[in-house]
Amino acid sequence: TAFGKSPEIAASLWQSLEHTQILQTVRPTGQRQAAGIEVELNEIESRAEEYPLTRAFCNLIGTLVESYFPANLGAGLRAPGFEPYLQFLRDTVFLRFRTRAYRRAAEKWEVAAAVLNVFYKLLRDYEPQPEDFVEQYVEMQGEEKAGYKPPGFSLMHHLLNESPMLELCLSLLEEGVTQLDTYAPFPGKEHLETAVTCCFMLLNLTLQKENLFMDLLRESHLPLIVTPLEQLLQGINPRTKKADHVVNIAR
């Protein structure tokens, strides 16, 4: 991933990622099964209870999004944008990382830290723009398809709703603080610290950007429902049945 720090090399690596379909972003007509790293994670790594490819992929994407980010990624092959990568990282890697088995206990937190670091970088570098709130269409094989939003927009939408992503971030903060409060060493402690820090920074960034995001959304009449994060943080914690999210964050 050190090579990916040069913008020129990063641009070339993005092209290679799309061309090789390491993450399948274009599914040929008639193909029923997924392919690429998604199959590797769900079938091979999960069975072996070891996740070296998933961690390497997250680290590569984390380096690439920091160096160079092509807005038209995948153009000509599919609706351009980062969304297929974000969906994989969020829905397949992050939302399921807790339910997978790990031969090496520390790797659970290595996976969480690697994927949360990508989310943090994407949201940190996102500034809401009026054009993000206008539906864009692209022509694909003679038909018009809705274009993808920037990844930061997508993350804001998920973090300004009672989404599985927000729920998991809040749950990780609670679990992390509880484990770190014991001051006892455990496998993956430094990666748990990184994951907890990223969750905290994601919430902080959402709070910083939400006013502009919600103002632009109101002006646009885009049919999107969001709730201020400070309101969501006052909701009931499903584990404790109390409104204690803010207390957990303050700890």
Automatic annotation (TrEMBL):
The keyword Nucleus applies. Keywords: Nucleus, Transport. Signal peptide: none annotated. It is found in: Nucleus. Its main location: nucleus. InterPro entries: Nup186/Nup192/Nup205. GO terms for biological process: nuclear pore organization. The keyword Secreted does not apply. It comes from the Eukaryota. One of its GO terms (molecular function) is structural constituent of nuclear pore. One of its GO terms (cellular component) is nuclear pore inner ring. Coiled coil: none annotated. Belongs to the NUP186/NUP192/NUP205 family. This is Uncharacterized protein. It comes from Engystomops pustulosus.
